[in-house]
């Protein structure tokens, strides 16, 4: 795994992120919800679909029950839900997904802080290392997708992963490539194929986990969005398939200084 970058550009922001009055460390704004192995029930309506929230819980070995008469340990209370007497831990949808209004001075510094505190940021069902690095890159482009593509084409991480991928294309295979994918290098199919993903859907595909504490991908992308505004997800695959063995996901936005910033995830499926 490539460790997080710590450039001088971020040092002042990182210092303000981790230090409080008198130099003490400011707690991260994430409440530990007892989700691992829990028996979970949902009450009333939520912003996300119930199926999505259930799937999120089941990723952490939690059992979702529908009958409030069953023994439950975690009650997730939706919008305008009535008061319910229960011995279970109660939380809101926002608390379950650790959504806050807090905006860090530097999103890459926040990611570096999570990594330093033992959080593993990884794609769901990843069979590889997951997180690669944060980045900040100077660009003259004011169009986010163009900036992400330009960054990907010069990224040593993307080049290394695509070069090490076992897949090699024949002319017959190239004739069957899906129209959803485009060559990263127009002259070389083995340098990777890309597509842009909808950020709101991609948010459910990864999390940061440390011991039994979860920082959801939904929370991380909403925090990035609060820092830079528009964000985008560029997926680069070794094969022109959504379930390709290797894929590099570059998630980023343009900050107020016109710098492209974000982080990189490596997903491996075999």
TrEMBL record:
Classify the source by domain of life. Answer: Bacteria
What is the protein named? Uncharacterized protein
């Amino acid at each position: 795994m490539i460790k997080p970058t710590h450039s001088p550009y971020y040092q002042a922001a990182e210092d303000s992120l981790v230090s409080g009055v008198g130099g003490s460390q400011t707690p991260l704004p994430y409440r530990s919800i007892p989700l691992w192995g829990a028996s979970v029930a949902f009450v009333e309506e939520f912003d996300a679909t119930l199926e999505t929230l259930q799937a999120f819980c089941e990723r952490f070995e939690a059992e979702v029950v529908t009958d409030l008469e069953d023994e439950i340990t975690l009650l997730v209370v939706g919008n305008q839900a009535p008061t319910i007497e229960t011995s279970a831990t109660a939380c809101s949808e926002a608390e379950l997904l650790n959504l806050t209004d807090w905006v860090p001075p530097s999103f890459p510094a926040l990611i570096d802080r999570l990594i330093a505190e033992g959080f593993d940021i990884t794609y769901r069902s990843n069979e590889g290392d997951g997180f690669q690095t944060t980045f900040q890159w100077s660009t003259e482009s004011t169009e986010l997708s163009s900036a992400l593509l330009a960054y990907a084409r010069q990224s040593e991480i993307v080049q290394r992963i695509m070069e090490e991928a076992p897949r090699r294309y024949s002319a017959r295979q190239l004739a069957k490539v899906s129209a959803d994918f485009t060559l990263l290098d127009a002259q070389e199919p083995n340098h990777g194929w890309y597509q842009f993903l909808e950020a709101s859907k991609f948010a459910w595909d990864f999390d940061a986990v440390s011991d039994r504490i979860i920082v959801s991908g939904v929370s991380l992308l909403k925090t990035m969005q609060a820092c830079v505004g528009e964000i985008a997800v560029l997926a680069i695959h070794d094969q022109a398939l959504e379930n390709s063995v290797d894929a590099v996901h570059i998630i980023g936005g343009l900050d107020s200084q016109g710098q492209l910033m974000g982080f990189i995830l490596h997903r491996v499926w075999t």
